[in-house]
Design goal:
Layout (H helix, E strand, L loop, with lengths): L6 E4 L3 E9 L10 E6 L7 E4 L7 E3 L3 H10 L14 H10 L3 H20 L6 H22 L6 H16 L2
Antiparallel strand pairs: 1-2, 1-5, 2-3, 3-4
Length: about 170
Amino acid sequence: MFKVGEYVVYGNTGVCRVEGIGPLPIGSSDKDYYTLVPVYGRNSRIYAVVDSDKVVMRPILTRKESDALIDELEEIDTLSIGDEKRREEIYKEKMKTCDCKEWVRIIKTLYSRKMDRLSKGKKVTSSDERYLQMAEENLYGELAFSLQMPKEEVQEFMAEKIKKKCAVLGI
């Protein structure tokens, strides 16, 4: 169980602060709920049943875990999707896991697909754009929070770290 004041990742909402735990403020219920406040945007509150497993809720990455993920970026493979009709379904399944490595896989897959389509004079599909944006928002939001930096700087920070790693390895 999470505690008031802790930060968590809640589904595709991203990083949230646990503001309270208890019954809903309106209505009657015998269940306890987390009151979650999203860190990025959305002046809102989310009420999530404490013992529910319908939506993934997990602790955010530590700084050490974030650094390790960034160091591992190059080794994370893209998704191999054979059936074009299932592409969006696969993206949706991967997003629901709330696993940063899966978000990286989506980003790498969709970036590669985007570059390929553009080089052939084709447009990027709206579902590809939507899932790329979702994966980036979730990943960069969590990394920004754990690395204590503005979300807008995360992508550049990751690229710089990869360049430095390649230079050290002589690549």
